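[INFO] parsing input record for NEDD8-activating enzyme E1 catalytic subunit
[DEBUG] input buffer:
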Amino acid sequence: MDSVKRQEHSMTIPDSKRQRTLSTASDEEMTTPVSQTDRSDVDMTELEQEDVEKGIIGSLNSPKILEALEKCKILVIGAGGLGCEILKNLALTGFKHLHVIDMDTIDLSNLNRQFLFRKKDIGQSKAIVAAKFVMSRVPGVEVVPYFGKIQDKDEDYYRQFQIVICGLDSVEARRWINAKLVDMVDEDDMESWKPLIDGGTEGFKGQARVILPTMSSCYECSLDMFNKPTTFPICTIANTPRLPEHCIEWASVLEWPRVWGDKKYDTDNPEHINWLYQQAEARAQKFNITGVTYSLTQGVVKNIIPAIASTNAVIAASCCNEAFKLATGCAPHLNNYMMYTGDAGIYTYTFEHQKKPECPVCGSETSIAELKPTMTVEELIEWLGEKPDAQLKKPSLRTATASLYMQAPKALEQATRPNLTKSVSELVQEGEYITVTDASLPVSLQLRVKWIK
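[DEBUG] output buffer:
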């Protein structure tokens, strides 16, 4: 935040110019760009006019700035609490070409903070309704919505944007778009380089960051800063549950599709949640596990994250401020991570998050897995699931010559299941590489095995 303050100071109108501007301008003129006011009312040399235009008001209203805003095309991913704020801010700032993607529909519970929606919009696409609302309130702005997943779009779609802003509550989606933008970079083509601005909130806490693909720390580099996910390896929940969460995951991941087939459960349907709760409770009793409750079932299945409108507003403002700086070059952008806490006042902290050389997305080095030779494949999977810098859900493992354990398809899972009880040293040599794939991983993870005592 200090860098932002220093830049603002350097852009302040010089004292002599400021005094003349404030004393001669009426209220009506103060709402007019400085460059236009000075041309019509004050006989100034070109050099003096340039000096005034270096001030904050003049700079933000200069033809070059306005042209940059009009030409910049921005993609906003997410039209929820954070996305609504971001779309509103971008449109009012002067950006003219916006796209928004969201796969969700509007629910009654959204209306207390997602202010682009009304009661009549319940059940409709968030992206479509948000786009229509913004265009109806801000003349001249074009907002193109897409109701679906970000994974539906190919590389050519993302190449059309100058900046991508994430306002998501899904770690998986953020990992995916981060990897996509890094993978798109061509060193010989500057047009392939797309800055990513990521914002996130949880209760009174939030963060905003600027990711320059291949140049700065990427989203994957900072996974260990996030809360540990409440999901568990499928081999554990299927065979040896030990926690109430294991039983709930078993009911939602394994038992529901077994009973209901392709029908997906609705996390907002009390009947579905109650069915999962009953199945999980029966499973817990079978393994002498206590603690399964209806509220815990809701928490695990829905992965509930509290949302507060004021936090969304602060983080969205920070994200849009960075978009403005990147689009216009009027000030240095954030380098590269800002944390916000608002539960006991207003506290922000800015720091530079370093790149990880072994990052599977942007790094150039292979991760080393220091393992005990006696560790079983099942224990290795559990260990991977607990690693905060991996955030894996259902990892599958293979080497260059064999499959250690595969989560899917069902036939391959059954064929590799006997390996779960075998030690890793029976199947892998020291120095050999294990390839880890997972639904939450945007790329495969390479681990080089090193034995420890």
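[INFO] The domain at 234-302 is CATH 1.10.10.520 (Arc Repressor Mutant, subunit A).
[INFO] shutting down worker
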